[in-house]
Amino acid sequence: MGVGELLIIKKMEDNYIVPAQTKIGHIHLKVSDLERALYFYRDLLGFELTTMYGSQAAFLSAGGYHHHIGLNTWHSKGMPPAPVRAAGLYHTAFLYPTRKDLAAIVERLIKAGYPLSGASDHGVSEAIYLNDPDGNGVELYWDKPKEQWKFNPDGTIVMVTEPLDVDGLLNELN
Length: 174
Description:
Order of helices and strands: EHEEEEHEEEEH
Number of strands: 9
CATH superfamily of the largest domain: 2,3-Dihydroxybiphenyl 1,2-Dioxygenase, domain 1
Shape: globular
Strand content: 25-35%
């Protein structure tokens, strides 16, 4: 498809819904410097290296899965970050099992002096935002118990973006 061409997709008339057990299996990112990306995802965030493909690709996971994150320089070695004002990935989100687990990684990032770009309470979750060394957005979050979520009269979930009480989050570690 060339520039300016419109892709027309036939509207489906059925009511197919993806199975509830479906999960996002992994992300695969183009990076400009594999060692720098490994420092961020492995050494700072704590993902485990599961395999390397020579000096051009690495795969990392949490809990022994084959990979949650793929990193490669196949088409991007030494290249600048993707422009912010362009179509593409907005951010990758990593769901932590508990509020205390989120607090632990936030404390680690603060101690390392790694810059955070945001911290929000979304009503259904609490999140910290940062960028990886290639400018890819990263969200680290935990979901609040569903009993704490609020719903609109029509049954849709109320989601907000309010400031996160980072000090209150870090108090989880005491």
